[in-house]
Amino acid sequence: MRYRQIVNTIRNLKQLEIKSSGDFKRLKSRINDIGTLDYNMVKATIYRENFEYALQHVQEYEGFDILQKYLNRIKNPERFYQYIKKSNVMSDIFAYYKPRR
Question: Where are any strands of DSSP class E within the chain?
């Protein structure tokens, strides 16, 4: 199965040289979109890990358990990133606690 995938990939790359301008631009755009989606997911996942690490420094404060339960309900790392980014207070946590990465 993996062999077939590799052969198909090689075949598609060889055909890339003979693609017309429109086909090439469409393929280039598709590859760029796929790469961007992956990059954003990795970036958001690392951000979440660092945020949760920084939160360990404030776990003794009142209401921490409520905040942690709410944040744990956000499963998608990109949605988590967007949610934290909207709040100046929560996004400033890295000014006080150094991230691991």
Answer: none
